[in-house]
Amino acid sequence: MPELPEVEALKDFLSENLTGQEIVRVLPVAVSVLKTYDPPVTALEGREVSAVHRYGKFLDLATDGGPRLVVHLARAGWLQWRDRLPDGVPRPGRGPLALRVALATGAGFDLIEAGTQRRLAVYVVHDPQEVPGVARLGPDPLAADFDAERLAGLLSGQRRQLKGALRDQSLIAGVGNAYSDEILHAARMSPFKPTASLTRDEVERLYTALRGTLTEAVERARGVAAGRLKAEKKSGLRVHGRTGEPCPVCGDTIREVSFSDSSLQYCPTCQTGGRPLADRRLSRLLK
Q1: C-alpha–C-alpha distance, residues 60 and 127, integer Å
Q2: H-helix segments, the chain
Q3: DSSP code of residue 89
Q4: 211 near 179, Cβ under 8 Å?
């Protein structure tokens, strides 16, 4: 799933390649992709892109005097930039193409989604706050005013485990499954540690890991072409998706806890005092 660093890189890429360009066609291909109908997608056509913004994991393409195209790539969605779009109109089918945006220059981009679960979402709105997922977002962890005090305030009323808190978009915007694993590894904390048990020093350590992990990932992704961002993300991960490999910090074997539709990875030595977490429901390790 694209998370804050990849979406930030996509924002920068699109800002460079889209700003000032005229949209001539917006073609929804997958029936499920378009979540709004008023204004219609045709209201974007004939307008120039004036700016590209990011809200958490959402991309927002603003047009000059017109509506905005807001995109959430969900778990398996991605953006493919094309210097020259194929001729002809794409036909709906079982392929990955969900929506195509064509520019007057002949360039444009495709929104694609792998797999059978169609969760990629596109909204045409006058204001990004009209999108429910944007309206409920918590603060951006890379914002200038997001400090350790802000994080402490967000976590103070929570009674949950750290992994879930970090992934809650209404609490902190932009962090997903992969980077929450990376942040907790950098902070040397168990994913099952209760937020209510955090000391002041631990909040400071978590804040440093949060900002540092995301900032480093953004810097790695900066300037990388859209088509290479997925590979760049994977290459920079230290524990997520690396079950069975040695921890780059201590050399212990990275372990995994599986859920119905996802999994987390962690290092026992770095994060849980050397004790493996057998299962989220069965483990009594909440430290």
Answers
A1: 10
A2: 4-18, 132-135, 148-156, 162-167, 177-187, 200-221, 229-236, 268-271
A3: P
A4: no
For the record, the structure tokens of 228 come out as 């290479």
Kindly give the pairing relationship between strand 49-55 and strand 58-63. Answer: antiparallel
pTM of the model: 0.92
Q: Tell me which residue has tokens 């945006």.
A: 101
* 277 neighbors 285 (Cβ within 8 angstroms): yes
C-alpha separations of 93 from 51, 111, 178, 226 in Å: 32, 14, 31, 25
- Model pLDDT for residues 46-77, shown as the tens digit of each residue: 999 999 999 999 999 999 999 999 999 998 89
Residue in the structure block whose two tokens are 């307008």: 47
| Secondary structure class of 71 (helix, strand, coil) | strand
According to DSSP, residue 74 is labeled: T
Spatial CB neighbours of 199, under 8 Å, sequence gap ≥ 6: none
Contact criterion met (CB below 8 Å) for 50 and 64: yes
pLDDT tens, position by position, 6-43 = 999 999 999 999 999 999 999 999 988 999 999 999 99
CA atoms within 13 A on the CB side of 19: 10
Provide the sign of the torsion angle of the four alpha carbons 177, 182, 185, 189, taken in this order.
Answer: negative
Which pair of structure tokens corresponds to residue 265?
């990875």
Rounded distance, CA 194 to CA 103, Å? Answer: 49
Q: What is the DSSP letter of 90?
A: P
